[in-house]
Amino acid sequence: MKVSVLQENLAHGLGIVSRAVAPRTTLPVLANVLVATDEGRLRLSATNLEIGITCWIGAKISDEGSTTVPARTFADLVGTLPDGQVDMDLVVQTQTLHVRSGTSNTDIKCIDAQEFPPMPVPDLRDGVVFNVSDLREMIKQVVFAASSDEARPVLTGVLLTVEDNLVTMAAADGFRLSVRKAELSQGSAQSMKAIIPARALNELARIAGDGDDTVTMSLPPGRGQVIFRTDDVELTSQLIEGSFPDFEQIIPVMHNTRTVVSSAAFLKACKQAEIFARDGSHIARLNITPGDELQPGSVEISAQSEETGSSEAVVEATIEGQPVLIAFNVRYLREVLDVVGTPNVALETTAAAAPGLIRPMGDDGFLHVIMPMHLGG
Amino acid sequence: MPIQILPDEVASQIAAGEVVERPASVVKELVENALDACADHITITVEGAGQKLIEVADNGQGIPANQLSIALARHATSKLTSAEDLFNIRTLGFRGEALASIASVSRFSITSRIREEEAGARLLVEGGQMEGGPVPVGAPAGTVVRVEDLFYNVPARRKFLKTDTTERSQIDDFVTRYALAYPQVRFLLVQEGRTALQTTGSGNRREVLASLFNADIARQMLEVNAVYEDFRVFGFISPVGLTRANRRGITLFINGRWVQDISLSTALIQGYHSMLMVGRYPLAALFIELPPNKVDVNVHPTKTEVRFTDRDELFKGVQSAVRRALLAHSPVPAMGGQLRWTPTPPQTFSRRDGWQPPEMAPDTQIEAASVMPEYKHQPVLPAGNVPLLRLIGQVGTAYLVAEGPDGLYLIDQHAAHERILFEKFMAEHKQSVASQTLLDPVTLELEPGASRLLEENLPLMGRLGFEIEVFGPNAFKVRSVPVLLSGVDPGAAVRVVIEDFEEDEAPLQDQIEAKIIARVCKRAAVKAGQVLSQEEQRTLLSDLETCQSPRTCPHGRPTMIHLSIDLLERQFGRTGAR
Lengths: 377, 578
What we know:
The complex is a heterodimer of chains A (377) and B (578).
Chain A: E1 2-6, H1 7-17, E2 32-38, E3 41-47, E4 51-58, E5 60-63, E6 66-70, H2 71-80, E7 85-91, E8 96-101, E9 104-109, E10 128-131, H3 132-142, E11 157-163, E12 166-172, E13 176-183, E14 192-197, H4 198-207, E15 214-218, E16 225-229, E17 233-238, E18 257-262, H5 263-277, E19 283-289, E20 297-305, E21 309-321, E22 324-329, H6 330-337, E23 344-349, E24 356-360, E25 366-370, E26 373-375
Antiparallel strand pairs in A: 1-5, 1-7, 2-3, 2-6, 3-4, 4-17, 7-8, 8-9, 10-15, 11-12, 11-14, 12-13, 13-25, 15-16, 16-17, 18-21, 18-23, 19-20, 19-22, 20-21, 23-24, 24-25
Chain B: H1 8-19, H2 23-36, E1 41-47, E2 53-58, H3 68-71, H4 98-104, E3 107-113, E4 120-126, E5 129-130, E6 135-137, E7 142-148, H5 155-159, H6 164-181, E8 186-191, E9 194-198, H7 205-212, H8 215-220, E10 222-227, E11 232-237, E12 243-244, E13 250-254, E14 257-259, H9 262-270, E15 281-282, E16 284-289, E17 295-296, E18 307-308, H10 311-328, E19 334-335, H11 364-371, E20 390-395, E21 399-404, E22 407-412, H12 413-431, E23 434-445, H13 448-456, H14 458-463, E24 467-470, E25 475-482, H15 490-503, H16 509-524, H17 534-545, E26 560-564, H18 565-571
Parallel strand pairs in B: 1-8, 13-16, 19-26
Antiparallel strand pairs in B: 1-2, 2-7, 3-4, 3-7, 4-5, 4-6, 8-9, 10-11, 11-16, 12-15, 13-14, 17-18, 20-21, 21-22, 22-26, 23-25, 24-25
């Protein structure tokens, strides 16, 4: 293998794939990055067997070939090279990669590319096409609600379903549920259903490029994998097996009280309450009082802690229905208010022991369910 | 060679070989005689490591002049009259061999006066041959036995004696142990003109303990006191942090007799189950009192081996007495032990075998302070609280290393977190427990027995923050869990609690609540092997500082080990051993 690349392209590519490198592993080749010539470009790949990331960069190829280079060594080295051309030349017998740039000459010991796990080649013809910015927005609104508890693997993932031209993402951790629906610009011929690890989606949002690029998702049949592909980046992830809870039945269909507040004001009040709630059980009480002709309705958000003290904040609100006193984990409230993305938000409640539903005003695609807390005894 | 009856002289030397092995055995036999004679003042004088002179003087009953020569005959004793008595022995001696044996291998003199007589009598014996009859002499009440030139006529035995230092320390060890067993007797041991041991006879065992180990260790020793139907176990054992690499720190007495019984010391060590590191052994001075007919001391002439009629019962008793004392005192094992911990209140919960925490943790500190006034000015750490700790880092993804004002602390992250959760939970529990409703209720299917138990305890579970509904035969729906457990699989958390119900046949309400909480906290606490961020580590430490009894986990294991600056300095050889 003999190739020439630009230093900045190489550094960028290594930065993207490095997140999938498994630094501590019993399989040494997983700490390496696959470097291979691929149809006129240079392909960089890394995998930790759960997630695999591939990035293609432009290169001048003199001789085809491939090898795997220790990721850390390679990335650190490339970071110190000057701008401009980097020439790489592999001695196949010794698996040594000569890296030359400007006045520097280095040799890196590599591992044969044969040992690197094969990456699936997606069939992109029947894939589902997303707009990058839409996809990133969806991920942001859903992924935080996924659980980090490995004891229930299904909940560490995000359920993604595609039907006709409607795509739905849902995540839940046992106490809250986030559901985002969106329409696809190009309808999909087939319906799909998969549980994708939240971590893979976080990585996808990070590397997917920006603006109006598109991402193609495909589920190769029978492999238990999902592949997301942009022009020059590909992310492969294992799917989580199991059945996701039937979340539709968890979403409350009716409510007794509907409270509409400014998202920003509500978020600020929650952040304030959290300062005190975080020492105890993260419990924040919402006292929702409908208004009358003389004064507007209000939501009083209060929290207290044995050690630090207590806090109360009142937010003006438009309230339909009965007054209600309900308690929530304030961190859950804060996290959803961070991502609603509309100026106003509606909180729908039925009773103190029943779930609360949060919907952004003017965006039917998103909803979030939070289970209440209560004080026993 | 024709068979012939051995001459008396040879026979008694052979017998002496069994009883009188070394100078310390002479001391043992003579001191035991003094104790059997009800002396309350025993003076032992040793010269030449016992080979030149051993003199034991007591103020006991004494021997009448006319019986003095019988006393020296073999198989002559006042302690036993018939074979039946052999199974009901209350005295230390009974074989009637000691004086005869000792007299046969030394230049021996015995002087004795009974209280009622005005004059005493003296008898001289050399190599087992009496030098005339008893001659009247003036003497204090009691008996003085002088043994000079031990083994002068048995050069073979002499050759096998160890160095003088070893022989002297054997005598020291032996007298100290008897001083411990008989604290009401004043012992004075003078070796080579120097006082090696002096006790006051005040009856305070801890005082004697200080001469067996050292003052520092004596101060730390925990008191054991357990009375069973047939027997009683009392004495002192070392706290968990104080260990030796061998069993030699273990001293056992049965009915005032020092015995070496491997299985009894094993029972003692088993009492430390899971608290000692491999290859470490506790220190102990344990006294067992049981009816004389339950123990056979007539196994070996030196009587250091005994047999029991009811050994299992006895071993179980020793083990549980030790365990109980340990659980009642579970302070931080301070390595090097330069600091005084006030014992924490008992943290034990009722065990399956029906142990109850001792009603009162014997306040060892008060007693210790009165014995060793020089320690009064030692800094006493406030009960329970840990000093302000500065985090250094995490070791082996299981322990935190922190610096306090008085040295290094190693903290077990799991045990510490368990303690923190436990106290948070208990504090919250006193008011009302915040619980978090589940998005999707968890259905639990249980075996009939477990489900009956859970059903009976639903109100209790409710108070702890579990909202559980009966959902059909042997099925339940968990609707909400305590907030503290929201990171745990709810089904698993409930199961853990049910296991506890199953273990206790008739749990007491207030205890079972604490126990369940402890159990649940164990489940929720961070595990060993979990990497903690700096922030998490710091929070753990500061949370631990606010705990009321931060030194043990709710199950009684220590949360931290303390290495004092002093210990570090000594380990690095910066200061001499003090």
